[in-house]
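Translate structure to sequence.
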C-alpha cells in the first residue's frame, strides 16, 4: 500500500501533542521533545511545528481564483499565511474567528511569480506557477502586491 504523509499545523505545541496521541503516535510533550513513531520520516513537519520552528513570514487577505474552466471560476476571498517552510496556506471564512484551512501552495516547487498586468494601476492579480497548476491571486493593491512579492520571491527555487 502507498504511504501517505499528512502535514498538520496546530496553534500550540500542546494541541499538536494531543492530536498526535489521538492519531496513535507518541507525543514528545509540549517542550518539543522527540517522539519515536513508526513514521518518523513522514513526521518531519510535525516535529518542526512541535518544536516551534514553523514561523509565519507574512499573512493577509487576498482573492484566489478557483480551479476549473476560467469561464466558470471566480475569485474568492481567502486568508493566506506564508510560513518559513516555503508553504503558502490558504483558509476559507469571512472572519478570523471562523476560518478553516483549505489548502496550500508549495513555493519550493514554484517556477514563476509575476503580475498578469504589470502596467495596470487597478489590476494587481498575479500568478504563481507550480507543476500542474497556475495559482491566480489578487492582493487588491499595489502596496499589498509589493509586500507579498517581497516575501514570496525569496521562497522560489532559482
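Result:
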Amino acid at each position: 500500500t502507498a504511504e501517505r504523509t499528512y502535514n498538520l499545523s496546530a496553534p500550540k505545541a500542546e494541541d499538536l501533542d494531543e492530536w498526535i496521541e489521538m492519531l496513535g503516535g507518541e507525543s514528545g510533550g509540549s517542550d518539543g521533545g522527540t517522539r519515536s513513531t513508526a513514521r518518523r520520516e513522514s513526521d518531519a513537519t510535525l516535529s518542526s511545528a512541535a518544536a516551534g520552528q514553523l514561523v509565519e513570514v507574512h499573512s493577509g487577505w487576498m482573492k484566489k481564483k478557483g480551479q476549473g474552466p476560467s469561464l466558470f471560476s471566480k475569485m474568492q476571498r481567502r486568508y493566506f499565511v506564508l510560513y518559513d517552510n516555503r508553504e503558502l496556506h490558504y483558509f476559507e471564512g469571512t472572519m478570523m474567528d471562523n476560518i478553516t484551512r483549505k489548502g496550500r501552495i508549495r513555493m519550493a516547487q514554484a517556477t514563476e511569480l509575476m503580475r498578469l498586468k504589470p502596467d495596470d494601476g487597478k489590476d494587481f492579480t498575479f500568478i504563481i506557477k507550480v507543476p500542474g497548476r497556475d495559482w491566480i491571486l489578487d492582493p487588491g493593491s499595489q502596496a499589498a502586491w509589493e509586500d507579498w512579492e517581497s516575501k514570496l520571491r525569496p521562497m522560489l527555487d532559482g
